[in-house]
Amino acid sequence: MANIIANEQVIVKQAEQTFLLDFSCEIARVRTKADLEAAIFKVLDKILHAKVAMITVIADDGYNLVRFMFDETLFDHAREVYDEMLGKQFTIEETYNAKVLSSEDGLVFNVEEEAMSGNALAALWQTTGLKNAYSLPLRVGDRNIGTIWLLANHLSQLILRGIAAQISIAIANIQANEKLQNYKKQLENENLYLKEQISNIYNFSEIIGNGAEMQEVYRLMSLVANSATTVLVLGETGTGKELIARAIHNASPRKDKLMVKVNCAALPANLVESELFGHERGAFTGAIDRRIGKFELANQSTLFLDEVGELPLEAQSKLLRAIQEREVERVGGKQIIKVDVRLVVATNRNLEEEVKAGRFRADLYFRLNVFPIMLPPLRNRTEDIEALTLFFVEKYSRNSGRIIRKVTPGVIQQLRSYSWPGNVRELEHLIERSVLLTTNSTLQEVYIPTNHLLSERSENKEQFNRTLDEVDRTYIIGVLKRCRGKISGHGGAAAILDIPGNTLHSKMRKLGVTKTDYFSKE
Fold it and tell me: Which residues are listed as membrane-spanning (predicted)?
């Protein structure tokens, strides 16, 4: 009898070793979570008649346990209770998990005894009809990476240790592969951003312009560049807000990292959150892969949010939280991700007016308006038009193969007399067109939009039918609007009109110019 028993033990042990060898071969072919799930469910169910109640992995924070895999069909008879249990957050300090993670070879729980003791999980285990629950720590080396819970009538210690060891290695490999894929995706994203920026940015290192208003912009940039302070760049369309943002980034300690740009006006409302904060696979229809957001991509670098005034209110609240907490959460994810991002935002809208109109959150405005930099419109810096013109002529001459060595004074005067509603961007496009239409080495003519000339003529005709006071009043209001209501001091209306501030105040009283005239909504 002793020999028979010993022989049976040898046979059982050989069968277990054969099983572990076959299981090891199955696991070796695993590359994804889906592959691992198929291998585990097939082998355990068909050969050992065991069920996988839950596999958890320790989150990046080292504290929370994230559900990695479970058999959805296991608790069909207790779906409501099972769904409730799945909704709970488990940690490594929870009683049962702490015991399992601190054990050497795992623990065995009798289902009936646990149910009698009041264990909430045991009520679920009972619905399967299996007698025991086996829980083992998943380890790679000396490091815990998670736990596995199995339900079966009987499993040997050898089988349990072998299964846990193989699954631990497979999960570690899957996690490593996912990280590699994320790094690869991040590099691809950065490469796309670099190509986009190289194709869009001006090909010069310094911003062109030496007038008094631009000197003030340079002074503010030099004061804020070395800090991590949020910068709000204000200015009309085409004034070069992105160029200012890039210059601030390049002068900052973060210059070795990629500056990430988001054009808020170009984002569909339903994709803003995904674009900024990323999403997990399956978070919504079409989310076939995990995607990191622009905040994660700009970690330890600068994030430039262009046209921030276009963000919908819901996205504004989430942006506010990201700025305040310095953390983001992907759409469909439960993990909090800490980020170190320096924000530079830009808009051509009057955010104060947007706040009053209820289209922009006041608390977000105060968060963004830490260090505002106002870019002057081109019509206020006519002294820079010649330098900008010569630069663009050289640039597009080189690009088009033209040889243009001279720009006539008449062209410069014509450009200075134009109001430039599109600012520097409009000037650049106009010079590009003019260069292409030039057939000799001298740029003698530029092609100012005809609608502007027509509007000027109509304005001139209208002015002939108005009194001098009416013309003065209209002109003063226009200058005040351009200066955003500033009357005296540097960049004020009095300086542009070349009269003392007191004189301008007197004229305004005489002509009946009030704040409602130059602060009215456009």
Answer: none
